[in-house]
Design a protein that fits this description.
Layout lengths: L46 H4 L5 H10 L4 H8 L2 H4 L3 H8 L2 H8 L10 H14 L4 H4 L18 H9 L4 E8 L6 H11 L5 H13 L15 H6 L6 E6 L3 E7 L7 H8 L4 E7 L4 H6 L4 H11 L4 E7 L10 H17 L4 H4 E5 L20 H6 L10 H6 L13 E9 L3 E6 L10 E5 L3 E10 L2 E2 L8 E7 L11 E3 L5 E12 L9 E2 L3 E6 L2 E14 L5 E3 L3 E2 L4 E14 L10 E6 L2 E10 L6
Parallel strand pairs: 1-3, 1-4, 4-5, 5-6
Antiparallel strand pairs: 2-3, 7-8, 7-13, 8-12, 9-10, 9-13, 10-11, 10-12, 14-20, 14-22, 15-19, 16-17, 16-21, 17-18, 17-20, 21-22
Helix pairs in contact: 2-3, 2-5
């Protein structure tokens, strides 16, 4: 007996013993299993360049499902689960052709002989996608980057988001009287640009039919909650995105009912282009445009809140009372022109008119047929009513924004905020460029914070330029430190005041006030901020004939007034001359827009 022998233990690798059988060869020692490596975060930056154009699956997705939209096709290819929803893809895979294509596209084999190049790209991507262990611990791996991550998932994604999409971004706000067809038009644009699949539309059609409202099915794309669908009225500002070869767009579907004007103001404050939807149906245009209708107030607010262009679409031209008649279209345009001019719009430069049918899609993406409308082709070719494009989308693509300066100091009014592993602020970049890691000042509190991350639609960005609606993670800030109406700035920060000298135009007065005078109280709306305000002094008035009265004590509707306004609390703002988007405001009271104005002077800075 060997005293040094160890205790015998059965080997799990040993084969079963059989009587009379030969002794099996000794099994080789199993190689130690390597430590598991965490899967890399998904990156779509290289997907477009690595796609095999002859791949049957790629050809099917690009041509039949996405109608030639490469960006959308790449997104679908990168998300196999979403592809299985389409019966064409299932048929292709079941036939074996798609499976063979997938095998050929195996990253290990590098079917095109570019294995070394792919390996180099993978190494670079791995180096760019290293995540701090403490942040990644316990976090599930998903195919989409969510805004809850404190850092962008990969630098490849950052480069794609910023440098890979140079198209200008425009915010469209759809405004107008209740039941003019804003939500239906917004939903149809998304459907015509392939942002909503046919199955979803069929589901909405069935739901609308159950409610005995067959024509509402397109509005259900934007009106998502039960209250909006039951009443057929938009309450919250609906948001969606679509893009063309020239621009990227965000749709802001504003409510038309007078009770929800504050929500409409919140949406319009982010907009670059206003789409004023007018119903051509007999009686509907008149009720929306006459006193008390929301067409007038929405047009006023759009100009005050900084909309650069106003596209007036005369909707419901296919309605039986209209039938694409030029007389009705001209009647609507002739009544709107003088009013919009009075709102401050330069008709020839800033206002476009176009007849459409939001329900059928005529003149939205495709031009209305000459059988239906005989006069439109001649009209747009002659550039009548400032419109030389045949459809709404082609008209939007032709608009060019001016005054966006990416090198100016950052100004981003805060629209909203929430908490998700830190405080996340929402807003639109009005000027300058925001980058992760930079220092910024929050006005009016004057607190300085570090920007930990920037996102657009859950995609991490390396930088955000003017016009982008983004999410910003503010390091070290609590919910009480970031509030709606605050402004995120870089040096020099914007002013924050409780008194200002302004020039306003009196548009309407509440029932109890016959004249506009010192002591008049209203709600002050500027960018995303809202504050109680009191007119403390009137310096001069100008009547409609241009007669100036210095030292006046009161003003009436239609007059222009230079006055001083005192606010209940300080509000971040600037003069209209320096920063137009921070220098416009509106005075509202008792559900009416009483005055629109611009800030002329601010108190001198304190030492």
């Amino acid at each position: 007996m060997n005293v040094n022998a160890g205790e015998w233990k059965p080997s799990v690798a040993a084969s079963e013993w059989t009587p009379g059988g030969a002794a099996p060869p000794a099994p080789a020692a199993p190689a130690p299993s390597p430590e598991p490596t965490p899967p890399p975060a998904p990156s779509r930056a290289s997907s477009a360049s690595e796609i095999d154009e002859n791949d049957p699956l790629w050809q099917l997705v690009l041509t039949k499902i996405c109608n030639g939209d490469r960006d959308r096709a790449v997104k679908l290819i990168d998300n196999p689960e979403s592809l299985l929803k389409y019966p064409e893809v299932e048929a292709l895979i079941s036939s074996g052709e798609g499976a063979a294509a997938m095998e050929e596209d195996d990253w290990e084999t590098g079917g095109d002989g570019s294995g070394d190049a792919v390996a180099d790209g993978a190494a670079d991507a791995m180096a760019a996608m290293k995540i701090d262990d403490s942040a990644a611990a316990g976090a599930p791996t998903t195919t989409t980057t969510t805004i809850s991550k404190s850092k962008p998932a990969s630098k490849a994604m950052e480069v794609e988001a910023v440098e890979g999409d140079p198209r200008e971004h425009l915010n469209l706000v759809f405004i107008g009287h209740v039941d003019a067809g804003k939500s239906t038009l917004s939903g149809n644009i998304l459907y015509l640009t392939d942002n909503v699949d046919k199955r979803t539309i069929e589901k909405y059609e069935a739901e609308a039919k159950e409610r005995n409202r067959e024509s509402w099915f397109l509005a259900f794309i934007m009106d998502t909650n039960e209250e909006e669908r039951a009443k057929g009225k938009t309450v919250e500002v609906g948001r969606a995105t679509f893009d063309t070869d020239i621009h990227r767009y965000s749709i802001l579907d504003a409510p038309g009912h007078k009770n929800y004007v504050p929500n409409m103001i919140m949406g319009a404050s982010q907009a670059d282009v206003g789409v004023l939807v007018i119903s051509a149906r007999k009686g509907e245009f008149e009720s929306g445009f006459d006193k008390g209708g929301q067409t007038r107030e929405h047009a006023l607010l759009a100009k005050t809140l900084g909309v650069s262009f106003l596209v007036v679409v005369i909707n419901k031209m296919d309605e039986p009372t209209v039938q694409w008649k030029k007389e009705r279209y001209d009647e609507c345009v002739s009544k709107l022109r003088p009013f919009l001019k009075g709102c401050g719009f330069k008709i020839k430069k800033e206002v476009k008119f176009m007849p459409i049918s939001g329900l059928t899609g005529s003149n939205v993406k495709d031009e209305v047929s000459t059988d239906e409308c005989t006069w439109w082709k001649e009209s747009w070719k002659a550039a009548e009513n400032n419109t030389d494009k045949p459809t709404l989308i082609s008209l939007l693509d032709s608009l060019q924004m001016k005054g966006r300066d990416p090198n100016a100091p950052v100004r981003m009014p805060i629209l909203d905020r929430y908490t998700d592993r830190g405080t996340i602020a929402m807003g639109k970049v009005e000027s300058g460029t925001i980058r992760p890691g930079m220092k910024a000042t929050m006005m009016p509190t004057r607190q300085k914070y570090k920007i930990d991350g920037v996102w657009k639609e859950e995609m991490p960005l390396k930088s955000a330029r003017p016009g982008e609606n983004i999410l910003v993670k503010v390091n070290g800030a609590g919910m009480e430190d970031v509030q709606k109406g605050f402004v995120l700035c870089t040096d020099p920060p914007c002013r924050s005041v409780d008194k200002l000298i302004c020039q306003i135009m009196v548009m309407d007065l509440p029932d109890h006030a016959k004249v506009f005078t010192a002591g008049f109280q209203a709600n002050f709306h500027a960018h995303c901020a809202e504050e109680e305000a009191t007119v403390t002094k009137i310096f001069e008035t100008t009547n409609r004939k241009g007669v100036v009265n210095k030292g006046a004590h009161f003003a009436s509707v239609g007059m222009t007034v230079v006055c001083m306004i005192e606010l209940a609390r300080t509000v971040p703002c600037e003069t209209f001359e320096d920063y137009p988007f921070l220098g416009r405001f509106t005075l509202r009271t008792e559900g009416k827009t009483c005055a629109i104005g611009v800030i002329k002077k601010l108190p001198p800075k304190r030492d």
